[in-house]
Amino acid sequence: MKLLIAFLSALTVLCVAIPQILADNGTATNSNNTVQTTNLVLPVQNLPVSELQRDWQAKFDLLEQKKQAAAQPKAKKPKNQNALTIGDQVFTLMGIFNQNGSTFVLIKDEQQTLSKVTQGDTIGNAVKLIKITTSSITLATPEQTKTFKLFQRQSNDKTS
Q1: Which of 46, 72, 108, 127 could form a disulfide with 92 if both were Cys (CB 3.0 to 4.6 A apart)?
Q2: Distances (CA, A) of 156 to 12, 35, 69, 122
Q3: How many CB atoms lie within 10 A of CB 26?
Q4: Cβ pair 137, 96 in contact under 8 A
Q5: Is the separation of the CB atoms in 92 and 107 below 8 Å?
Q6: 94-145 pLDDT, tens per residue?
Q7: Rounded CA gap, 58 and 53, in Å?
Q8: How far apart are the first and last CA of the chain?
């Protein structure tokens, strides 16, 4: 019986040891070979877009539009507090004066040229002085008419 146990033990050791020895020899001879890999390419699937994702994308697009609008240069504001803007022209009101019963206005244009303007005269490009009172002047272009009030700081964007 002892002989049978010894034989089975030797056989087990040979069954375990011989494949290990052969595997180590095979690895040593194949060490110069490169490992080949296979890339698995999955086709793109068109998944349905959920309502939540559409809402999120719409809000994101709106935010991007607001950022672009904020990045664009805004309209040029006049440097002077007395600036009169009508159309794309800017004038500086120097004052309203009475001389010998006639009323006139002193106005500087964008080139800083001082002009004496009476009611009905044309200033710059098609801007006409319509009316002069002690507290306001009215300027008009073919597209719009604006009244600028003196001594009352308000937005001059009101049209009449």
Answers
A1: 108
A2: 104, 79, 24, 20
A3: 10
A4: yes
A5: yes
A6: 888 888 888 888 888 888 888 888 888 888 788 888 888 877 888 888 888 8
A7: 9
A8: 124
